[in-house]
Amino acid sequence: MSEIETRYYMRMNVADQAGVLGKISKILGDHDISISSVIQKESDPSTQLAEIVIMTHRAKEKYMQQALDETKQLSVVKEISNFVRVEA
C-alpha cells in the first residue's frame, strides 16, 4: 500500500493568519508532493478559522502519510476534516 501512487484531496481548517499555506506547502514539497490546486474559503470571523482544500498531483502513499503526520502537528492546523485518495 505504501508504494501506490495516486492523487490526494485534503480539506482542513486552519488558523486565519499569514504564512499558514506556506507552512503546509513546505511540508508537502519536502516529501516530493506537488500541489495541483488550492482553494481557500472565506474565514469564519467567530472562530478565526479558514478552510483550505488542496488537490495534489500523483504522489506515493508513504510520502503522503508522512506529510499528513507533520501537517497535523502544526499549531496552525486545527483539523484535517477530509483526506481522500483520488484515482485519475
Task: Write up this protein.
- By secondary structure, this protein is α+β, with helices and mostly antiparallel strands.
- It contains two helices and five strands.
- Strands 1, 2, 3, 4 and 5 form a five-stranded antiparallel β-sheet that branches.
- Helix 1 packs antiparallel against helix 2.
- The longest helix is centred in the C-terminal third of the chain and has 13 residues.
- It is elongated, with a radius of gyration of 13 Å.
- The two termini are 17 Å apart.
- The mean pLDDT is 94.
- Extract low-pLDDT stretches: none
Return Rg in Å.
Answer: 13 Å
User: What is the beta-strand fraction?
Assistant: 35-45%
Mean pLDDT: 94
Structural class: alpha+beta
Give the N-to-C terminal Cα separation: 17 Å
Largest sheet: 5 strands, antiparallel
- Total count of helical runs of at least 4 residues: 2
Order of helices and strands: EHEEEHE
Gross morphology is elongated
| Proportion of helical residues | 25-40%
Q: Total strand count, please?
A: 5
Describe this structure in a few short sentences.
The protein has 88 residues and is an alpha+beta fold. It has two helices and five strands. The radius of gyration is 13 Å and the shape is elongated.
Note the main attributes of this structure.
88 residues, 42% strand, alpha+beta
Strand-helix topology:
Elements: E1 5-15, H1 20-30, E2 35-40, E3 49-56, E4 59-60, H2 61-73, E5 77-86
Antiparallel strand pairs: 1-3, 1-4, 1-5, 2-3
Helix pairs in contact: 1-2
